[in-house]
TrEMBL record:
<keyword id="KW-0804">Transcription</keyword>
<dbReference type="InterPro" id="IPR000847">
    <property type="entry name" value="LysR_HTH_N"/>
</dbReference>
<protein>
    <submittedName>
        <fullName>LysR substrate-binding domain-containing protein</fullName>
    </submittedName>
</protein>
<dbReference type="Pfam" id="PF03466">
    <property type="entry name" value="LysR_substrate"/>
</dbReference>
<dbReference type="InterPro" id="IPR005119">
    <property type="entry name" value="LysR_subst-bd"/>
</dbReference>
<dbReference type="InterPro" id="IPR001845">
    <property type="entry name" value="HTH_ArsR_DNA-bd_dom"/>
</dbReference>
<feature type="domain" description="HTH lysR-type">
    <location>
        <begin position="2"/>
        <end position="59"/>
    </location>
</feature>
<comment type="similarity">
    <text>Belongs to the LysR transcriptional regulatory family.</text>
</comment>
<keyword id="KW-0805">Transcription regulation</keyword>
<dbReference type="Pfam" id="PF00126">
    <property type="entry name" value="HTH_1"/>
</dbReference>
<keyword id="KW-0238">DNA-binding</keyword>
<dbReference type="InterPro" id="IPR011991">
    <property type="entry name" value="ArsR-like_HTH"/>
</dbReference>
Amino acid sequence: MLDPRKLRLLRELAQRGTIAAVAEALSFTPSAISQQLSALEREAGVALLRRTGRTVTLTPAGHLLVEHAQDVLEQLEKASAALAAVRSGPSGPLRVGAFPTAARVLLPPALAELSRAHPGLRPMVSEIDPADVSAALRAGEVDVALVHEYDFVPPVTDASLETEALFGEQMYLTNRATIADARDDAWIVGKPGTLCHAMAIRACQAAGFEPRVRHQIDDFDTVLAFAAAGQGVALVPRLAALTPPHGVTLTGLPLSRRTLAAFRRGYGGHPAIKAAVAAFHTAITHLPL
Protein backbone atom coordinates (compact mmCIF):
# COMPACT_ATOMS: atom_id res chain seq x y z
CA MET A 1 0.00 0.00 0.00
CA LEU A 2 1.40 3.38 -1.00
CA ASP A 3 1.57 5.95 1.80
CA PRO A 4 -0.32 9.18 0.86
CA ARG A 5 2.11 11.24 2.92
CA LYS A 6 4.99 9.98 0.80
CA LEU A 7 2.96 10.56 -2.37
CA ARG A 8 2.58 14.16 -1.30
CA LEU A 9 6.36 14.46 -1.01
CA LEU A 10 6.81 13.03 -4.50
CA ARG A 11 4.30 15.53 -5.88
CA GLU A 12 6.15 18.36 -4.17
CA LEU A 13 9.44 17.17 -5.66
CA ALA A 14 7.84 17.22 -9.12
CA GLN A 15 6.64 20.78 -8.47
CA ARG A 16 9.69 22.24 -6.71
CA GLY A 17 12.48 20.45 -8.52
CA THR A 18 14.88 19.67 -5.68
CA ILE A 19 14.82 17.76 -2.42
CA ALA A 20 16.29 20.81 -0.67
CA ALA A 21 13.36 22.96 -1.83
CA VAL A 22 10.85 20.36 -0.65
CA ALA A 23 12.58 20.11 2.72
CA GLU A 24 12.62 23.87 3.18
CA ALA A 25 8.96 24.25 2.23
CA LEU A 26 7.75 21.48 4.53
CA SER A 27 10.15 22.11 7.43
CA PHE A 28 11.97 18.79 7.16
CA THR A 29 15.64 18.01 6.69
CA PRO A 30 16.74 16.98 3.18
CA SER A 31 17.86 13.68 4.68
CA ALA A 32 14.37 12.99 6.02
CA ILE A 33 12.81 13.75 2.62
CA SER A 34 15.29 11.46 0.88
CA GLN A 35 14.54 8.65 3.33
CA GLN A 36 10.79 9.00 2.80
CA LEU A 37 11.16 8.98 -0.97
CA SER A 38 13.40 5.92 -0.81
CA ALA A 39 10.75 4.19 1.28
CA LEU A 40 8.15 5.12 -1.34
CA GLU A 41 10.31 3.51 -4.02
CA ARG A 42 10.42 0.31 -1.96
CA GLU A 43 6.64 0.42 -1.58
CA ALA A 44 6.19 0.99 -5.32
CA GLY A 45 8.69 -1.73 -6.26
CA VAL A 46 10.14 0.39 -9.05
CA ALA A 47 12.66 3.21 -9.36
CA LEU A 48 10.92 6.57 -9.07
CA LEU A 49 14.00 8.78 -8.91
CA ARG A 50 17.15 9.04 -10.96
CA ARG A 51 20.09 10.21 -8.86
CA THR A 52 23.13 11.79 -10.52
CA GLY A 53 25.48 13.21 -7.90
CA ARG A 54 23.36 15.66 -5.92
CA THR A 55 20.79 16.00 -8.70
CA VAL A 56 17.53 14.05 -8.47
CA THR A 57 15.03 13.75 -11.31
CA LEU A 58 11.87 11.70 -11.69
CA THR A 59 11.94 8.56 -13.82
CA PRO A 60 9.04 7.88 -16.22
CA ALA A 61 7.53 5.71 -13.47
CA GLY A 62 7.93 8.61 -11.06
CA HIS A 63 6.07 10.97 -13.37
CA LEU A 64 3.33 8.37 -13.82
CA LEU A 65 2.94 7.98 -10.07
CA VAL A 66 2.72 11.76 -9.62
CA GLU A 67 -0.27 11.81 -11.97
CA HIS A 68 -2.01 9.16 -9.90
CA ALA A 69 -0.91 10.79 -6.66
CA GLN A 70 -2.86 13.91 -7.57
CA ASP A 71 -6.04 11.82 -7.94
CA VAL A 72 -5.41 10.06 -4.63
CA LEU A 73 -4.74 13.31 -2.75
CA GLU A 74 -7.83 14.93 -4.28
CA GLN A 75 -10.00 12.06 -3.05
CA LEU A 76 -8.53 12.41 0.43
CA GLU A 77 -9.32 16.14 0.41
CA LYS A 78 -12.90 15.31 -0.63
CA ALA A 79 -13.18 12.78 2.19
CA SER A 80 -11.91 15.34 4.70
CA ALA A 81 -14.39 17.93 3.41
CA ALA A 82 -17.27 15.44 3.53
CA LEU A 83 -16.51 14.47 7.12
CA ALA A 84 -16.32 18.13 8.12
CA ALA A 85 -19.72 18.72 6.51
CA VAL A 86 -21.25 16.01 8.72
CA ARG A 87 -20.22 17.91 11.82
CA SER A 88 -21.84 21.13 13.00
CA GLY A 89 -21.41 24.42 11.13
CA PRO A 90 -18.07 25.91 10.09
CA SER A 91 -15.78 26.45 13.06
CA GLY A 92 -12.16 26.60 14.06
CA PRO A 93 -9.22 28.28 12.36
CA LEU A 94 -9.42 29.29 8.71
CA ARG A 95 -6.11 30.38 7.18
CA VAL A 96 -6.65 32.90 4.40
CA GLY A 97 -3.97 34.14 2.02
CA ALA A 98 -4.48 37.37 0.10
CA PHE A 99 -2.59 39.84 -2.06
CA PRO A 100 -2.42 43.41 -0.67
CA THR A 101 -5.27 45.05 -2.63
CA ALA A 102 -7.69 42.25 -1.77
CA ALA A 103 -6.55 42.28 1.86
CA ARG A 104 -7.29 45.99 2.08
CA VAL A 105 -10.50 46.26 0.05
CA LEU A 106 -12.25 42.88 -0.05
CA LEU A 107 -11.30 41.09 3.14
CA PRO A 108 -12.58 43.55 5.79
CA PRO A 109 -16.24 43.29 4.69
CA ALA A 110 -15.82 39.58 3.95
CA LEU A 111 -14.44 38.89 7.44
CA ALA A 112 -17.27 40.91 8.97
CA GLU A 113 -19.75 38.76 7.02
CA LEU A 114 -18.01 35.57 8.18
CA SER A 115 -18.14 36.70 11.82
CA ARG A 116 -21.85 37.45 11.49
CA ALA A 117 -22.80 34.23 9.70
CA HIS A 118 -20.32 31.83 11.34
CA PRO A 119 -19.07 33.11 14.70
CA GLY A 120 -17.30 29.81 15.35
CA LEU A 121 -14.84 30.42 12.52
CA ARG A 122 -11.51 32.05 13.36
CA PRO A 123 -10.07 33.48 10.13
CA MET A 124 -6.35 34.24 10.15
CA VAL A 125 -5.08 36.32 7.24
CA SER A 126 -1.58 36.27 5.76
CA GLU A 127 -0.49 38.57 2.94
CA ILE A 128 0.94 36.52 0.08
CA ASP A 129 1.81 37.14 -3.54
CA PRO A 130 -0.28 35.05 -5.94
CA ALA A 131 2.91 33.57 -7.39
CA ASP A 132 3.50 31.85 -4.03
CA VAL A 133 -0.06 30.65 -3.43
CA SER A 134 0.11 27.23 -5.08
CA ALA A 135 3.04 26.13 -2.93
CA ALA A 136 1.44 27.54 0.23
CA LEU A 137 -1.85 25.74 -0.40
CA ARG A 138 -0.19 22.43 -1.23
CA ALA A 139 1.93 22.68 1.91
CA GLY A 140 -1.16 23.38 4.02
CA GLU A 141 0.10 26.81 5.09
CA VAL A 142 -3.20 28.38 3.97
CA ASP A 143 -6.66 26.87 3.42
CA VAL A 144 -8.04 29.33 0.89
CA ALA A 145 -6.36 32.18 -0.94
CA LEU A 146 -7.27 35.14 -3.09
CA VAL A 147 -5.23 35.18 -6.28
CA HIS A 148 -5.30 37.31 -9.38
CA GLU A 149 -4.63 36.84 -13.07
CA TYR A 150 -3.58 39.53 -15.53
CA ASP A 151 -3.79 39.71 -19.27
CA PHE A 152 -0.42 38.72 -20.76
CA VAL A 153 0.37 36.56 -17.69
CA PRO A 154 -0.57 32.86 -17.50
CA PRO A 155 -2.51 31.56 -14.46
CA VAL A 156 -0.38 30.88 -11.39
CA THR A 157 -2.32 27.90 -10.03
CA ASP A 158 -1.51 24.30 -10.91
CA ALA A 159 -3.38 21.01 -11.27
CA SER A 160 -3.41 20.44 -7.51
CA LEU A 161 -5.70 23.44 -6.99
CA GLU A 162 -9.20 24.56 -7.89
CA THR A 163 -10.32 28.15 -8.36
CA GLU A 164 -13.60 30.02 -8.34
CA ALA A 165 -13.89 33.31 -10.21
CA LEU A 166 -14.87 36.28 -8.05
CA PHE A 167 -14.62 39.50 -10.07
CA GLY A 168 -12.68 41.37 -12.72
CA GLU A 169 -11.45 44.95 -12.85
CA GLN A 170 -10.08 47.26 -15.50
CA MET A 171 -6.44 48.33 -15.61
CA TYR A 172 -5.41 52.00 -15.76
CA LEU A 173 -2.29 53.82 -16.96
CA THR A 174 -1.01 56.82 -15.03
CA ASN A 175 -0.45 60.16 -16.74
CA ARG A 176 -0.44 58.85 -20.32
CA ALA A 177 -3.16 58.08 -22.88
CA THR A 178 -1.69 54.81 -24.16
CA ILE A 179 1.11 52.45 -23.23
CA ALA A 180 2.86 53.32 -26.49
CA ASP A 181 2.93 56.98 -25.39
CA ALA A 182 5.03 55.91 -22.40
CA ARG A 183 7.78 54.38 -24.51
CA ASP A 184 10.38 56.94 -23.38
CA ASP A 185 9.16 57.31 -19.79
CA ALA A 186 10.57 55.83 -16.63
CA TRP A 187 8.37 53.02 -15.31
CA ILE A 188 7.25 51.97 -11.84
CA VAL A 189 6.62 48.21 -11.74
CA GLY A 190 6.29 45.46 -9.17
CA LYS A 191 9.27 43.53 -7.88
CA PRO A 192 10.68 40.78 -10.14
CA GLY A 193 8.96 37.45 -9.62
CA THR A 194 5.53 39.00 -9.02
CA LEU A 195 2.62 38.87 -11.44
CA CYS A 196 2.40 42.67 -11.40
CA HIS A 197 5.97 42.90 -12.65
CA ALA A 198 5.39 40.34 -15.42
CA MET A 199 2.16 42.04 -16.49
CA ALA A 200 3.77 45.49 -16.85
CA ILE A 201 6.80 44.17 -18.75
CA ARG A 202 4.70 42.11 -21.15
CA ALA A 203 2.16 44.89 -21.72
CA CYS A 204 5.02 47.16 -22.80
CA GLN A 205 6.50 44.44 -24.99
CA ALA A 206 3.10 44.01 -26.65
CA ALA A 207 3.23 47.74 -27.41
CA GLY A 208 6.60 47.28 -29.09
CA PHE A 209 9.20 48.31 -26.51
CA GLU A 210 11.05 47.28 -23.36
CA PRO A 211 10.14 49.53 -20.43
CA ARG A 212 12.85 51.60 -18.78
CA VAL A 213 12.24 50.45 -15.19
CA ARG A 214 13.26 52.96 -12.54
CA HIS A 215 11.36 51.84 -9.44
CA GLN A 216 10.23 48.38 -8.30
CA ILE A 217 7.37 48.75 -5.81
CA ASP A 218 4.55 46.34 -4.94
CA ASP A 219 2.24 48.60 -2.92
CA PHE A 220 -0.07 50.44 -5.33
CA ASP A 221 -0.62 53.39 -2.97
CA THR A 222 3.13 53.97 -3.04
CA VAL A 223 3.17 53.47 -6.80
CA LEU A 224 0.56 56.22 -7.21
CA ALA A 225 2.45 58.53 -4.84
CA PHE A 226 5.60 58.05 -6.93
CA ALA A 227 3.63 58.71 -10.12
CA ALA A 228 2.26 61.91 -8.57
CA ALA A 229 5.83 62.97 -7.81
CA GLY A 230 6.80 62.56 -11.46
CA GLN A 231 8.88 59.44 -10.83
CA GLY A 232 7.43 57.42 -13.68
CA VAL A 233 4.32 55.86 -15.16
CA ALA A 234 2.60 52.69 -13.98
CA LEU A 235 -0.25 50.31 -14.57
CA VAL A 236 -2.72 49.99 -11.69
CA PRO A 237 -5.99 48.06 -11.27
CA ARG A 238 -9.35 49.68 -10.61
CA LEU A 239 -9.47 48.93 -6.88
CA ALA A 240 -6.06 50.50 -6.38
CA ALA A 241 -7.08 53.61 -8.32
CA LEU A 242 -10.29 54.65 -6.56
CA THR A 243 -8.82 57.83 -5.04
CA PRO A 244 -5.72 58.81 -7.03
CA PRO A 245 -3.55 61.53 -5.48
CA HIS A 246 -3.33 65.02 -6.91
CA GLY A 247 -1.09 65.04 -9.95
CA VAL A 248 -2.17 61.63 -11.25
CA THR A 249 -4.52 61.17 -14.19
CA LEU A 250 -5.76 57.70 -15.04
CA THR A 251 -6.64 56.31 -18.46
CA GLY A 252 -8.64 53.11 -18.70
CA LEU A 253 -7.06 50.42 -20.87
CA PRO A 254 -8.47 47.33 -22.61
CA LEU A 255 -6.64 45.21 -20.03
CA SER A 256 -8.00 43.52 -16.94
CA ARG A 257 -7.09 41.84 -13.68
CA ARG A 258 -9.25 38.97 -12.46
CA THR A 259 -9.50 37.87 -8.84
CA LEU A 260 -10.24 34.26 -7.90
CA ALA A 261 -10.52 32.15 -4.77
CA ALA A 262 -8.11 29.20 -4.77
CA PHE A 263 -8.10 26.06 -2.65
CA ARG A 264 -6.77 22.52 -2.78
CA ARG A 265 -8.49 20.34 -5.36
CA GLY A 266 -11.27 18.35 -3.71
CA TYR A 267 -11.41 20.68 -0.68
CA GLY A 268 -14.00 23.11 -2.01
CA GLY A 269 -16.82 21.21 -0.32
CA HIS A 270 -15.39 21.84 3.15
CA PRO A 271 -17.88 23.96 5.13
CA ALA A 272 -15.24 26.54 6.07
CA ILE A 273 -14.13 26.97 2.45
CA LYS A 274 -17.73 27.25 1.25
CA ALA A 275 -18.44 29.84 3.94
CA ALA A 276 -15.37 31.87 3.02
CA VAL A 277 -16.14 31.89 -0.70
CA ALA A 278 -19.77 32.85 0.02
CA ALA A 279 -18.53 35.75 2.16
CA PHE A 280 -16.20 36.86 -0.64
CA HIS A 281 -19.13 36.97 -3.06
CA THR A 282 -21.24 38.95 -0.59
CA ALA A 283 -18.46 41.47 -0.05
CA ILE A 284 -18.00 41.91 -3.80
CA THR A 285 -21.51 43.30 -4.15
CA HIS A 286 -20.35 46.37 -2.23
CA LEU A 287 -17.16 47.00 -4.23
CA PRO A 288 -17.07 50.01 -6.59
CA LEU A 289 -16.19 48.01 -9.69
